[in-house]
Amino acid sequence: MSNVTVIGGNASGDLARRLARKLKAGFVGSSLRVFPDGEGKITLLGKPKSGKIIVVNSTYPPVDSNLVYTLALISKASEYSNQITAVIPYLGYARQDREFLAGEVVTLSVIADLLKAAGASKMIVVDIHSQMGMKHFKIPIRNVSAIEELARYFKKMHLKDPLVVSPDSGGAKRAEIFAGFYGTKYIALKKQRDRRNGKVRIITSELDDVRGRDLILVDDMISTGGSIVKATEFLKKQKCRRVFVACTHALLIGDAERKMRKAGVTQIVSTNTIPRKTAAVDVAGIIAKAI
Ligand code: R5P
């Protein structure tokens, strides 16, 4: 794609470079300098070609800063082209897609408007938290899924009598799709989250089928690890064998990883929507296909 330039933001430089290689497109990096007062200064490290521009930047923590940097890059890109695809592999605020409690701001909707105002004409995200989230965008938005790639990764592992498990009923469809690609069955636990303090508990009362089996807990994201810890503790009590975790976005806030391992998780596998040492699956190929 000779008339395409991929611009890599501070949060997704490596993924942007991989994407440019897959697309055989030009690549322009960027630099970020953060001033003592916290303001960031973004500089493009080259000149995009005339034609389509793809700006790649995830908005993982610091979410608000990375969001502002992404908007700044899109705005700068719009000086060179009016065909700008914003690829935001991990879209922060995607869980704030509706008013759960009276008075809450649906911040995702504000962000959707900001991205358009900055100059984005199309959007690509990876495994957005909910379909409802996509409705807030007034420009075409495409959600690509890493589930098949994750399932393919797990297929290469030697698991004993594997079963796919969703930690909550909201993720049942995701688990079903993963299990379909893997070629096994799935179950979904029932989880309850306190909307005020965020604490979760598993309310599934009984469960057979997991004793002695290797389990793959599938989720879209891991933030504090609370959902996975509760699910793992529950499943371990049911005498399962090993617990593996497959997720697209490994935020892994604070000591999330340590807590999950302590609860009995053997391995966490995520994608490079967020660069972490758990990121064994590359999403550049599926994004390239969507482009
Ligand atoms: C919730 O519905 C999501 O799919 C994740 O399960 C959740 O956001 C993970 O958060 P945490 O790791 O803090 O439990």
Show the helix and strand layout.
Elements: E1 4-8, H1 13-23, E2 26-28, E3 30-34, E4 40-44, E5 52-56, H2 63-77, E6 84-88, H3 107-118, E7 122-126, H4 131-134, E8 141-144, H5 147-155, E9 163-166, H6 172-182, E10 186-188, E11 191-193, E12 200-202, E13 215-222, H7 226-237, E14 243-250, H8 256-263, E15 265-271, E16 279-281, H9 284-290
The structure holds ribose-5-phosphate.
Question: Key features?
Answer:
291 residues, alpha/beta, Rossmann fold, 2 domains, 6-stranded parallel beta sheet, 9 helices, 31% helix, globular, binds ribose-5-phosphate
In what range is the share of β-strand residues? 25-35%
Question: Which strand order spans the largest sheet, edge to edge or round the barrel?
Answer: 2-1-5-6-7-8
Helix/strand structural class: alpha/beta
Top-tier CATH class of the largest domain: Alpha Beta
DSSP strand count: 16
- Total of domains: 2
Oligomeric grouping of the chains: single chain
Number of helices: 9
Morphology call: globular
- Biggest sheet, open or closed, and with what strands and sense? 6 strands, parallel
Catalytic activity: D-ribose 5-phosphate + ATP = 5-phospho-alpha-D-ribose 1-diphosphate + AMP + H(+)
Pfam families: Pribosyl_synth (PF14572), Pribosyltran_N (PF13793)
Keywords: ATP-binding, Cytoplasm, Kinase, Magnesium, Metal-binding, Nucleotide biosynthesis, Nucleotide-binding, Transferase
InterPro entries: Pribosyltran_N, PRTase-like, PRTase_dom, Rib-P_diPkinase
